[in-house]
Design brief:
13 helices; mainly alpha; 362 residues; binds protoporphyrin IX containing FE
Length: 362
């Protein structure tokens, strides 16, 4: 903790050149995206395991607060990706370090140039939503967010469980290894850390097209608001709302994960690669960050390493399970009751198809 305070203080005091700030920004954006990822993978798995919760989570994502967060997330991914590529190029061409300042500025400029049209595309989805859904008053939207978040609170127990598991693992490790500084105190020197160093660079390069493709689809082509709209589902031959009484976020995921081309579930395979690469890259990055700030205390450092390992393992297991289980159409029907609850919270009338579906279901 003291080293965290020290780093923050020194970063501000040092008023480093742009290279120092780009390091801070790379770190902040990496950690921000990894925290989002933890929520996102758990949420997405609900489409299969708890369809009603998925509907509510997406309803919360469609609120103004999350919309602002969405712009921040896209900035974070794009900046981190371009700066990551700069780091990779500089690592393999050390002579370029002389131009570090210009390169850091170039990364920032490139990020803003790419983001300008992307943000315009995203904004057009937001404006469309508020023009067509103008009936949703601000306080009703807040009701939806509060309601959706309350329903998800029990899952916080999972995070507490992960933290407890990390503390137990660190304690066991300390019992076995004792308190002597482990070799890991000088991570750069070990062959394992050299592997991780290369992995971070290679995975970064592979993630870039995957994550940019995913974001382009979810923000520009389709947009977070269109996930629940009656229209063609991006990257498939299906339309949302053809299975359920009305379109839903669960049906959107159902169509994407059921879409097969040449016998291959294209989006499941795509998401599996994304899941594995991004989770391992992100949580190994988080380990770098946390161990930097806990290097003075063996137990805290071991807890940090165990925390990153357990969190990554849980996400790979939960995300992997949701991608690998066979999908039943029932999940789309299960989403309908939750969709009706959202309509009611927004003070909107239920569409007749949904009303008919619910009364048949009783
Ligand atoms: C707010 C922005 C985002 C939205 C709206 C979004 C939306 C979605 C949706 C609808 C799915 C379901 C599967 C599909 O349709 O392909 C999904 C899956 C996934 N997304 Fe995103 N995504 C966003 C940002 C991100 C980012 C930034 C990352 C990476 C850091 C990411 C990583 C993943 C992964 C790994 C999966 C598979 C999850 C699983 O296996 O359960 N997403 N996303
Ligand atoms: C999109 C392409 C990406 C590229 C090219 C990239 C590249 C890099 C590179 C080169 C590093 C430095 C590694 C080192 O110091 O050894 C790094 C660190 C990191 N990355 Fe990424 N990355 C990408 C995506 C992501 C994503 C999606 C996440 C989150 C899930 C993430 C989270 C992190 C974290 C937390 C760090 C550690 C930062 C630090 O030590 O200050 N990265 N990345």
């Amino acid at each position: 903790m003291t080293s965290l305070v020290l780093t923050v203080r020194e970063t501000l005091r040092y008023r480093g050149a742009i290279g120092q700030w780009s390091w801070v920004l790379h770190r902040l954006t990496g950690v921000g995206v990894v925290l989002f990822l933890a929520l996102h993978v758990i949420d997405t798995s609900w489409a299969v395991f708890y369809p009603d919760l998925y509907v509510k989570a997406i309803a919360a994502y469609q609120s103004p607060l999350f919309t602002i967060g969405e712009f921040g997330l896209v900035f974070a991914v794009v900046y981190h990706a371009f700066n990551g590529i700069r780091i990779v190029i500089f690592d393999y061409k050390p002579a370029l370090w002389r131009h570090q300042g210009q390169a850091a500025v170039a990364v920032l400029v490139l990020t803003l140039l790419v983001l300008a049209p992307v943000f315009l595309g995203m904004l057009s989805h937001v404006v469309d939503f508020y023009v067509t859904e103008a009936a949703i008053a601000g306080d009703k939207m807040l009701d939806v967010v509060v309601f959706s978040i309350l329903e998800q609170l029990p899952f916080i127990a999972g995070f507490v469980g992960v933290l407890a598991a990390a503390i137990v693992l660190a304690a066991l490790y300390s019992l076995i290894r004792g308190d002597a500084p482990a070799r890991g105190n000088y991570p750069q020197a070990s062959p394992i850390e050299r592997f991780w160093w290369s992995f971070m660079r290679l995975s970064g390069i592979l993630i870039l097209p995957l994550v940019f493709g995913h974001l382009a689809l979810m923000h520009v082509v389709q947009g977070v608001f269109d996930i629940t709209a009656a229209q063609a589902v991006a990257g498939t031959m299906s339309s949302n709302g053809t299975i359920g009484a009305v379109p839903s976020a669960v049906e959107f995921v159902y169509h994407r994960w059921s879409y097969a081309a040449g016998g291959l579930f294209v989006w499941r395979v795509y998401d599996l690669f994304l899941l594995v690469l991004v989770t391992i890259h992100g949580f190994n990055g988080l380990r770098y960050v946390l161990t930097d700030y806990t290097s003075g205390n063996n137990f805290a450092r071991r807890t940090a390493v165990a925390l990153c390992t357990v969190m990554a393992a849980v996400l790979l297991a939960v995300g992997g399970a949701s991608l690998l289980v066979p999908l039943e159409k029932d999940i789309v029907d299960e989403a309908m009751a939750a969709t009706a609850e959202i309509y009611e919270l927004r003070g909107e009338e239920l569409p007749p198809e949904l009303e008919a579906f619910l009364s048949n279901d009783e």
